Amino acid sequence: MNREDNVYSAYVQILKEELVPAMGCTEPIALAYAAARAREVLGEVPDRVLVEASGSIIKNVKSVIVPNTDHLKGIPAAAAAGIIAGKADKELEVISEVSDGEIQQMRAFLEKTEIKVVHVDNGITFDIIVTVYKGKDHAKVRIANYHTNIVLIEKNGEKLLEIPVEGEKEEGLTDRSVLNMESIWDFVQSLDIEDVRDVLDQQIAYNTAISDEGLKGDYGANIGSVLLDTYGDDIKTRAKAKAAAGSDARMNGCELPVVINSGSGNQGITCSVPVVEYARELASGEDKMYRALALSNLVAIHQKTGIGRLSAYCGAVSAGAAAGAGIAYLCSGGYEEVIHTVVNALAIVSGIVCDGAKASCAAKIASSVDAGILGYYMYKNGQQFYGGDGIVTKGVEATIKNVGRLGKEGMRETNEEIIKIMVEE
Fold it and tell me: Which residues does the UniProt record annotate as the domain Serine dehydratase-like alpha subunit (predicted)?
């Protein structure tokens, strides 16, 4: 593959679109972003707020702590944070700069302001509509299909921006259908590191920093520390523990940013931190580490393209399999080792469901990274899962397609049932 090829350019652009910084769990941050923008359009602090959200948004915002709020959690907290302290031009870092005074204002706002939350189903998985009111005035902002995709801005009934929402099409992003394992492998071999150095440097810096903080602090269930205390600090355990620690930190109020993948900080951590840890352990060198990270990130994005941004299928599974691919490459594996690692990993943990963002995500990440590592060592030792073994079929692309079908179509009812369970609590 040459740098002049359209596919090469598309892959570089996909990495730049997906590997962006975010503070906190991305669904409450997207909600805060919509609320901040709505407040800007209204021009003043509202006295009433309506949040309409799809079930998957409700599921992913319900239980997670919103950063820079002094441990507030849930949809009203995310909306209040955006309204009081949000800077909409910072997008997924919308509440990265919050003063102590603003935190107190958030609490006062939550106490005195009606914030109504309504579950809506407009036929898409990712849907946030925030309407803010002040007297006779109101402003509305809608985000659809991905975290920064504002498709409607309205004030007092006048539409200032309206972009048609055509199903779950991701308008404005590079077509992900160009991704396939063979081309990803070709791209990684041909890659001029300078084309992606900035995004990968930021991913390494941010995601390892929050991982280290997770191990130092007391966050969530402290899965990383439990793993290290129980199983020792060999490279396989460290790879799992450090990824889990980063998740525990960001799910439980840590105010450090992460670089996301497929719209998810947990997935960004999962497909990068284990790869960086292995590269350092093996003294792979900078060039090989960057190529392994490009491989892992693109493999994760490729899998998630068929599943969608939000699903009842745990995104850590895709990212863990992708991390396994990066690790296989660092261990001198070739294309066959990489694709069989992915298939093996998916066969092991594709049954993990997503029941929203919260502390147990860290444990699911540890299990998914473990599956990625085991998937590689299985193939290295002459073992693999074959076509006909459950959802595994002949060929890596066919298996990834099956997983996409499982996650997007097969688990729709599962997702609805999970949401009902969570809402009824």
Answer: 138-419
- Helices 396-405 and 335-349: crossing angle in degrees, nearest 10, is 30
| Local mean pLDDT, 10-residue blocks, the chain (425 residues) | 92 97 90 97 96 92 88 93 96 93 96 94 93 97 94 96 87 90 97 97 98 96 97 97 96 91 95 98 98 98 92 94 98 97 96 89 97 97 92 93 92 88 75
CA angle 225, 20, 226 (to 5 degrees): 5
Contact 26, 264 (CB under 8 A): yes
A 10 A CB-CB count for 368 gives 35
| Structure token digits, residue 203 | 């991913």
Angle in degrees, 0-180, between the axes of helices 181-190 and 396-405, rounded to the nearest 10? 120
The structural domains of the chain, with segments of one domain joined by +, span: 25-162, 179-424
Give the 3-state secondary structure of residue 43: coil
Contact 403, 346 (CB under 8 A): yes
Contact (Cβ atoms closer than 8 angstroms) between residue 227 and residue 265: no
Structure confidence at residue 223 (pLDDT): 97
Q: 179: closest CA among 318, 33, 357, 386? A: 318
Phi, psi at residue 170, to the nearest 5°? -95, 85
Question: Kind of pairing, strands 114-119 and 48-53?
Answer: parallel
Distance CA 142, CA 80 (A): 16
pLDDT for res 425: 58
Helix (H, G, I), strand (E, B) or coil at 30: helix
Q: At how many degrees (to 10) do helices 235-251 and 223-231 cross?
A: 160
Query: Residue 291's pLDDT is what?
Result: 98
DSSP code of residue 1: -
What residues have CB less than 8 Å from 413, skipping those under 6 apart?
A: none
In which element (H, E) is residue 319 found? helix 315-330
pLDDT at residue 64 in the model: 85
Q: What predicted TM-score, i.e. pTM, was given to this entire model?
A: 0.93
User: Which tokens hold the place of 372?
Assistant: 């990625």
Chain position carrying tokens 């919050």: 98
Task: Determine contact, residues 77/110, Cβ cutoff 8 Å.
Answer: yes
